[in-house]
Amino acid sequence: MRSGAERRGSSAAAPPGSPPTGRARPAGPDAPPAPPPPAAGQPRARDTGDARAQPRPLFPWSKWKKRMGSSMSAATARRPVFDDKEDVNLDHFQILRAIGKGSFGKVCIVQKRDTEKMYAMKYVSKRQCIERGEVRNVFRELEILQEIEHVFLVNLWYSFQDEEDMFMVVDLLPGGDLRYHLQQNVQFSEDTVRLYVCETALALDYLRSQHIIHRDVKPDNILLDERGHAHLTDFNIATIIKDGERATALAGTKPYMAPEIFQSFVNGGTGYSFEVDWWSVGVMAYELLRGWRPYDIHSGNTAESLVQLFSTVSVQYVPTWSKEMVALLRKLLTVNPKHRVSSLQDMQAAPALADVLWTELSEKKVEPGFVPNKGRLHCDPTFELEEMILESRPLHKKKKRLAKNRSRDSSRDSSQSENDYLQDCLDAIQQDFVIFNREKLKRSQDPTSEPLPAPEPGEGAEALADGEGARSALRVCGAICPSAGSG
């Protein structure tokens, strides 16, 4: 999970219409773009996973899964059974390996001990959230994720906390994010990009029905499953707007932010709405096809300079792209949001998508053109080394560390606290955090399942709470730990 400040930071992108230099692509949404396609007659990386474009596997993903599966199957008879009244916690999961990190959050693969299902688990440091003013954003993300579920989203299954961290257990998407594949110099075909655009369009259409603007659609936030289908993730700067409302905050990753966001910030006015996400889809689609983005935008660009840029610079399209694809990109990258393609209905009417079987696509019956290599884990392998060697507070040693801290804290006079403000914030988070268990929620909604015991006050009521609990937590925690909100 990345902070709002991190996702706004970027380095120089290649100028429109000119190829970048060099092949190395450092991590991050604003890394230098990929090189242009090779000249005719030269070998080319294809989106079918050409071995010539893929580096040697850094992690034996398939062997690891097979080994883990066999070892877990042998232990099936003795796998634990947890009390259904008990809130889910870290002890319910086996930590397998680290796969990613942000400025104050990390992601690892876990397996739930009783069901043996595998998930990705994000965990964020409470202390660092407070210090960076990100508590409100984390609570808002949890509020949103607990209320939504869609086939093309990365869905939340559990949320819980301990003294140090807040945890979110979500779908495991082992195919990696599109940024990673761009960095591996994969060149995506029009058909593959068209599929990603359609699957993201279905996700955005669902979010609109829930009054949610994502505000951070980009290759980093599109994860692929094992079959190659796209899933939208990271709701850290998403916002909820009701009918007639408009958002006004300067939020997002600059190279993917729509012109009206900067115009609203510079000139005031009525703000912006759902159309901003569709502009981001256009920027992402262009980048996947060409290897760099349509506008030369840096983190250091002022909002005023970007307003000027959008009014004077024209996007350059590749002559070899199909007319239908160029027409779709033009409609997505229309500066005036009133004339932009900005709904599922608009997308379905586009000539480039005329032959899309939307019902089959929504059921994942359309086969992707690019399937991630199942023989490797699509992430930076150094995350695991850093967690095991460099991390001063590794997750696998948390239980012993917390027990030691509790023993030390019980012997210390609470009035001698070095930072009463920080402790007040930690106490507020501990009190207002909403525990969530989608597995339990689904069982309670299934008429064929056994009825759940009546929840104890303050336990199951939290697990099955609707958005009101999270909204209350936002108000209380915001009063103690102020954070830059995003409207």
Automatic annotation (TrEMBL):
SMART domains, per the entry: S_TKc
Keywords linked to the UniProt accession: ATP-binding, Kinase, Magnesium, Metal-binding, Nucleotide-binding, Phosphoprotein, Serine/threonine-protein kinase, Transferase
One GO process term, biological-process aspect: regulation of signal transduction
GO molecular function, one term: G protein-coupled receptor kinase activity
Biased amino acid composition, Pro residues: 29-40
InterPro entries: Kinase-like_dom_sf (IPR011009), Prot_kinase_dom (IPR000719), Protein_kinase_ATP_BS (IPR017441), Ser/Thr_kinase_AS (IPR008271)
Compositional bias (Low complexity): 10-28, 457-467
Ranges for domain Protein kinase: 93-353
Enzyme class: transferase
Sequence similarity: Belongs to the protein kinase superfamily.
Pfam families: Pkinase
Basic residues bias locations: 396-405
Transmembrane segments: none
EC number: 2.7.11.1
Cofactor(s), by name: Mg(2+)
Organism: Tursiops truncatus
Stretches for region Disordered: 1-62, 396-419, 439-467
Top-level division of the source organism's lineage: Eukaryota
Protein name: Serine/threonine-protein kinase 32C
